[in-house]
Write a structure and sequence with these properties.
267 residues; mainly alpha; 8 helices
Length: 267
């Protein structure tokens, strides 16, 4: 969703400014986002079971990889598609693992986990806005704003995992119905933004949150066995298909630069 109203920036010195660190919000953005959320669900299951690391071991390994990639993301002075989207893939996996650890290792119910992460995300947004006076991703040109951005992204993935599992499993809706439910909600937000003047920043973040359970439902439907309501492709095949699609799209965007915000943001 495009954002026409991001000219409200706080005073930032020229030394602190960078080129915007995130991609332009185009159709490509939402396509890769859904692909990443699907991989986050299936890859977490694959790594947990396939390498016999256990949930805790997998969480530690993926958390370490995420920290390394975020180091390079923060070090970069502009948006680099390969680094940015690798960070999104890893944070999607880590967000899934955080929720799985809470529910499987600590016995926290999916309903409680959903409430916890919704509250954590709300607090993150509140502090971010109090400090920066904007939640727009079109103004991610300082380290502090980027820190708020990635923290919010982490909580959206953890929240989406909990909410997606809650609707698909605890409410017995099944994976296809859950996917259609969240796709319908995203469509509703899009219509509200396009035709009823829903605030663009609010519309973006609502859609961003909803794509997580949408992707999780799609991933589970493709990977889970027929007995569990899926197509039985398995986590390996499903993860490989979506990782390949992500790689292809990112290479295309790197070459064509169709999602690069040109120019440096000014005060």
């Amino acid at each position: 969703m495009d954002n026409p109203e991001d000219q409200k920036y706080t005073n930032v010195s020229k030394f602190e400014q960078m080129l915007n660190k995130v991609p332009e919000i185009t159709l490509y953005f939402w396509i890769i986002k859904v692909l990443c959320t699907t991989v986050g669900e299936t890859a977490a299951d694959f790594l947990n079971a396939g390498f016999n690391l256990g949930l805790t071991g997998t969480s530690l390994v993926m958390g370490a990889l995420l920290i390394i990639v975020l180091f390079f993301q923060f070090k970069a002075r502009k948006y680099i598609p390969s680094i940015y989207w690798l960070a999104v893939v890893l944070i999607s996996i880590v967000g899934t693992l955080i929720t799985d650890n809470l529910t499987d290792n600590f016995g926290v119910s999916l309903k409680t986990a959903t409430i916890i992460f919704a509250a954590a995300l709300a607090v993150t947004f509140a502090v971010w806005y109090a400090k920066e006076k904007t939640l727009s991703i079109h103004s991610i040109f300082t380290t502090r704003r980027e820190s708020f951005y990635w923290l919010a992204i982490l909580f959206t993935f953890a929240l989406g995992t909990a909410a997606g599992d809650l609707t698909a499993e605890k409410f017995n809706l099944g994976y296809p119905i859950s996917a259609f439910l969240f796709a319908g909600l995203i469509a509703t937000v899009t219509i509200a933004y396009r035709y009823f003047k829903l605030n663009s920043v609010l519309a973006f973040w609502i859609a961003y949150i909803l794509t997580r359970p949408l992707g999780a439902s799609i991933g589970d439907y493709l990977s889970q066995s027929h007995d569990d309501g899926g197509l039985g492709l398995g986590t390996t095949v499903t993860s490989a298909i979506f990782l390949g699609a992500i790689l292809t799209t990112v290479i295309y965007l790197t070459v064509k630069k169709k999602d690069t915000i040109s120019g440096k943001i000014t005060e």
